[in-house]
Amino acid sequence: MSPEQLRSLLISRIRDVADYPKPGVTFKDITPLLADPLAFTALTDALANRCAEYGATKIVGLEARGFILGAPVAVRAGVGFVPARKAGKLPGPTLGQNYALEYGAAEIEIHADALSAGDRVLVVDDVLATGGTAEASVELVRRAGAQVAGVCVLLELGFLGGRERLAPVLGAVPLDALVRV
Ligand SMILES: O=P(O)(O)OC[C@H]1O[C@H](OP(=O)(O)OP(=O)(O)O)[C@H](O)[C@@H]1O
Ligand SMILES: Nc1ncnc2[nH]cnc12
Description:
Blueprint: H1 3-12, E1 15-18, E2 26-29, H2 31-34, H3 37-53, E3 58-62, H4 65-77, E4 80-86, E5 94-101, E6 104-111, E7 120-128, H5 132-143, E8 147-156, H6 162-170, E9 175-180
Parallel strand pairs: 3-4, 3-7, 7-8, 8-9
Antiparallel strand pairs: 1-2, 4-6, 5-6
Helix pairs in contact: 3-4, 5-6
The site of 1-O-pyrophosphono-5-O-phosphono-alpha-D-ribofuranose has 19 residues, from helix 4, strand 7 and helix 5.
């Protein structure tokens, strides 16, 4: 499948929901994509290819939708999966990071011993909106002593400026969106 065919397939399986979860927000619902095995497999394969390209040794997936996308990518790419969870859910000692997102604020945590100095991490999430979540995850990975190899999202909402916000944080680290609107 060409990149353009992949893009068309993926975008055709993302549904717009007006005024959710707040008035004025158009929510990008990926559940139709998850329900289509062809589209979900194509997405998983594309992200697993990025993982190999960037030489990543671990996937960090962001709760909750980043878990759904990131876990099969880790299996397909043959690397470990590290969950970045919303605060208070991990049982061991954690590192945490507060952040704001398009429609609220939150804190994510990873286990303090989940990553080591030799790890190269691919951060996987479904949507890049304001970039608050991605920025927090990059900070967490670096505070855990690992290197960020790349950030990959299914969908970038370009008009919210996440890419511009992340540019100084990422430097030469690639930020890859399979679909941009
Ligand atoms: O770029 P930002 O403005 O930070 O927004 C992007 C984040 O928002 C959504 O997560 P949400 O916290 O709604 O979590 P969910 O996956 O649990 O639905 C989405 O899955 C991204 O993680
Ligand atoms: N508009 C949006 N749709 C889906 N997920 C999001 N995360 C942040 N903004 C979002």
